[in-house]
Amino acid sequence: PIVYHDFEFVLESKAHFDVQDRGVLFADGVYEVVRFDRGKAFAMQAHVDRLARSMAGIGLEGVSATPFAELSYELLERNQLSDAKVYWQVTRGPAARDFVVSESTEPTVTLIAYPTQPIDLDAPLAVGAGHIVEDCRWTRCWIKSLMLMPASLAKTEAVKAGAAEAIFERAKPGTDEKHITEGASTNVFIVREGQLCTHPDDGWVLGGITRQTLLDLAKHLGLPIREDAAFTREQLLAANEAFVCSTTQLTAITSVGDAVIADGTPGPTTQRLHEAYRALLLQGG
Ligand code: PMP
C-alpha cells in the first residue's frame, strides 16, 4: 500500500517516523478518520473543520486542514481504492525531547487508507454488548488527540469481557453523580421516555460527526431529542434502546454487563436511524 508521509506519497514500507517526533514521544498530535464509499467522502468538510479545531486546540500551527481533502482523493487513486477509511494524522514533528513545546518544529503529516466494504443496504444492523469503564481521560475530549491510551485500554478490557464497545462513565468535578459520556471510539445514544438522548457536545465528549448526522436525521424524522443533559448508568440499563455510533459503525447495544436492555433486540428507533443513515451514506451525504 501507498501512504502519504512527510510531504510525499511513498510505499508504506518506506515511510518512517523520526524517533524524536513529538507524536512518538508525547502523543503530541491529532487525527481524523474519514469514510469513503464508492469513491466519495462522507462529510468531508466537517472532518476538515474538526481537524482544524483539534490543531488549534493543541496550539499546533503551520498546517492547513484544507489540503487533506485532495490528498485523500489522491491517496485513494494511487491505491486504486474506492471504499476506504482514510486516517489523517498531524504530529508536532521532531524535536529533542522536552516537555516545553518549541515553536520551531515542523509538523509531520501522515495519511493512510484502510480498505473497507462498500455500504450494503441489505447488511443487518450490528448488535453487541456494552461494557462500562471509568472515564479517566482529560477534560478536553473535544480535541481528537493521539493520546488514546485510556480508550485503547478500555476497549481491550471491553473486548476481553465479550463486549463490542467500552462505555465511559465519569463524575464531573464538584459532583457525585456519575454520567455516561461516550464510547471508547463512539458516541452513545439511548431512547428513554420517548426521547433520543445523548451526552451534550460540551467538551466532555468528542463532537462526533455521526452523532450530529444522526441528530439531524432524527429531527428530520420528527423524533423527540434530548441532548442538553447526560444520562446515568441506571438510565442506560433501563433504556428502551441503546446504540453507539462513529464514522465506521452503528451498533445496537442490547446488553451492558449482566443487564439486558429492554427485550435484548435492537429497537425501532435504532433501526430507523440506521436505515436513514445508510441511505444518506449511499447518497454521499
Ligand atoms: N467519540 C470518540 C472518543 C471517538 O474517538 C470517535 C471516533 N473517532 C467518536 C466519538 C465518533 O466520532 P465520528 O462520528 O466523527 O467518527
UniProtKB/TrEMBL annotation:
Could you say which EC number(s) this protein's record lists? 2.6.1.21
Q: Mind telling me which residue stretches traverse the membrane in this protein?
A: none
Q: Pfam families, from UniProt? A: Aminotran_4 (PF01063)
What cofactor does this one take?
pyridoxal 5'-phosphate
Residue spans making up a coiled coil are: none
Keywords in alphabetical order, please.
Aminotransferase, Pyridoxal phosphate, Transferase
User: Gene Ontology terms, cellular component aspect?
Assistant: cytosol
GO molecular function terms listed in the Swiss-Prot or TrEMBL record: D-alanine-2-oxoglutarate aminotransferase activity
Annotated GO biological processes are:
amino acid biosynthetic process; carboxylic acid biosynthetic process
Top-rank lineage group of the source organism: Bacteria
Family, per entry: Belongs to the class-IV pyridoxal-phosphate-dependent aminotransferase family.
Name the record gives this protein: D-alanine transaminase
Q: Which organism is it from?
A: Algisphaera agarilytica
